[in-house]
Amino acid sequence: MTKPLEERKNRDQRKGWWDSQPSVKDLYATLGVPPEPERSAWLEELDALAQRVHDKRHQAAVRTESAHWFQRASAGASAAVATLTGGALLGNLSGSAAHYVGVAAAAVGLATAAIASARPGDSYVVDLGRKANYEQLWWDIRTYALTQLRAAEATGFQAAMKEFAAREAAVLAGAATGQQG
Questions:
Q1: Where are the alpha helices (DSSP H) in the chain?
Q2: CA-to-CA dists, residue 32 to 27, 28, 29, 60, 120, angstroms
Q3: Looking at the domain assignment, is residue 50 inside a domain?
Q4: Whole domain around residue 171: which residue ranges?
Q5: In this structure, is residue 27 part of a structural domain?
Q6: Cα–Cα distance between 116 and 110 in angstroms, integer?
Q7: What is the CB neighbour count within 10 angstroms for residue 73?
Q8: How many CB atoms lie within 10 A of CB 66?
Q9: How many independent structural domains does the chain possess?
Q10: Nearest-angstrom CA–CA distance, 93 and 96
Q11: For residue 150, what is the DSSP state?
């Protein structure tokens, strides 16, 4: 198998791993101790928050991949424009052939400029940062559910939920302002 195919297969397997992660409720069930009624409601809250963060992480990952693809396509098309125009000059094209090469080069150049302006390189970094921040938040929610929820008091749980919500809002606010979060 060629190297690009192996990399794509590994990337697809990683995507599958992320999407196949069990819910926080399912993970808590593996502890073998059913939650008390109050903690059961808390577990529902944690599970809903974890699912929302999981979905936002997935959206950021998709945006990161599309930005990377657009950047590569734009760079390739720019190289094609340079090749076309340079080839036309070296080949001493004139008349209608030069006209068609010039129109094609202009069209490709405008298309790559539109792509570069629609998905600038900074958006890739911002989306990558969002993805990492959402993933870290998801892991922290999961860890809290497995290690601290069973012994949590009401005030401790409320403080943890406020912290998780504030971190989620910070990642979202960072994305809205174009910062990495």
A1: 3-19, 24-29, 37-90, 96-118, 121-147, 154-177
A2: 10, 8, 6, 34, 49
A3: yes
A4: 45-177
A5: no
A6: 10
A7: 15
A8: 14
A9: 1
A10: 9
A11: G
pTM for this predicted structure: 0.61
Long-range contacts for 160-168 (Cβ within 8 Å, ≥24 apart)?
161/45, 161/46, 161/49, 164/49, 164/137, 164/140, 165/49, 167/133, 167/137, 167/140, 168/49, 168/52, 168/53, 168/56, 168/134, 168/137
CA atoms of 77 and 169, how far apart (whole Å): 38
Task: Give the SS3 label for residue 93.
Answer: coil
Three-state secondary-structure class, residue 112: helix
Q: Are 81 and 108 in contact (CB under 8 A)?
A: yes
For residue 138, being part of any structural domain is answered with: yes
pLDDT in tens, the chain (181 residues): 566 556 655 655 555 666 678 888 888 888 888 888 888 899 999 999 999 998 888 877 776 565 556 666 666 666 666 666 666 655 566 677 766 766 776 677 667 666 665 555 566 677 778 888 999 999 999 999 999 998 899 999 999 999 999 999 998 887 555 454 4
For the chain, the straight-line distance linking the first and the last C-alpha, in angstroms and rounded, comes to 39
The verdict on residue 7 lying in a domain is no
- Quote the Cα angle for 35-36-39, to 5°: 75
Contact 150, 33 (CB under 8 A): yes
